[in-house]
Amino acid sequence: MNVHRDPRLIGLAVVAALAAAIPAAAIADSIGPHSSFYSTVSPTTKHAVLNVVDIDVHRTTGATLVNVGNECLGTFTFQVPGQPSFTGSKNATITPRLRHGKLSFRGRAKLIAGQGVAGHVQMTFSATVTARLATGTATFPGTKCGPIRFVAPLRERTK
Questions:
Q1: Which of 90-110 are b and which e, b meaning 16 or more Cβ less than 10 Å from the residue's Cβ?
Q2: Hey, is 114 helix, strand or coil?
Q3: pTM, entire model
């Protein structure tokens, strides 16, 4: 994923903001080997999206990286070099295990704003992941944020 050269991916720049939370090599150009990437944001999105769910599943190990962007948690201004700045939502990031096609998490998630950790937030997340689609719900107990029900199609799959 190269946000600098393809303005169509500006909506996915929120994923790049996770660079502080995961190793740079893992998101340098694309998802890692043996991985599937599900997202509620289409690669053709031309503007910032404030509520987004991204799920990166390493199929061999069952390890996942889940990012839930929610404008209710707060917003920040994000600057991509060479692009105009835009407002993005803060992101709650978790790493649950995929077991029998199900993801489940209840606890404290890292709250990411821009490229830094902005604290923690209580989060409940559940999803069903198939070969072509991830569906589920994310909630933030103790906040005024309502539940996020999502359908995230498969966007990229590596061998």
A1: bbbbbebebeeeebebeeebb
A2: coil
A3: 0.73
pLDDT above 70 for 45: no
Alpha helices in the chain (DSSP H): 13-16, 24-27
Q: Helices (DSSP H) in 38-123: which residue ranges?
A: none
Distance (Å, rounded) from C-alpha 122 to C-alpha 157? 30
Q: How far is residue 123 from each of residues 17, 30, 103, measured CA to CA in Å?
A: 20, 27, 13
Kindly state whether residue 49 falls inside one of the protein's structural domains. yes
Identify the residue with better confidence: 149 or 18.
Answer: 149
Tokens representing 94 are: 């978790």
The parent domain of residue 58 ranges over 7-157
The encoded tokens of residue 17 equal: 């903001």
